[in-house]
Design goal:
The protein is mainly alpha-helical. The protein has four helices and no strands. It has a domain of 46 residues.
């Protein structure tokens, strides 16, 4: 159960929802990094202690999005390999 949270925390949650929806329609590494950034902000916000269930969910999400932000997309592999030569 989540107790009442601040407007700032609720705003960041709404922003995260919008980012996830945008990623679904237009995935990119930069957007994955932004999602990871906002999850980190939520996890370090004072109000997260009021939401035990959300804290666990956001931690799992953060691990996924950090991993996803580090993946080199197939289109970028050729340019990355050519820059190493």
């Amino acid at each position: 159960m989540c107790l009442t949270v601040s407007n700032e925390f609720a705003y960041m949650e709404n922003w995260l929802t919008m980012l996830l929806t945008t990623y679904k329609n237009n995935p990119s590494t930069g957007l994955a990094k932004t999602i990871s950034f906002y999850l980190n902000k939520l996890l370090h916000h004072d109000d997260i202690s009021f939401c035990g269930d959300k804290q666990c969910e956001y931690l799992a999400m953060q691990r996924f999005w950090r991993w996803h932000a580090r993946i080199i997309k197939p289109a970028n592999v050729a340019s990355t390999l050519s820059s190493l030569k």
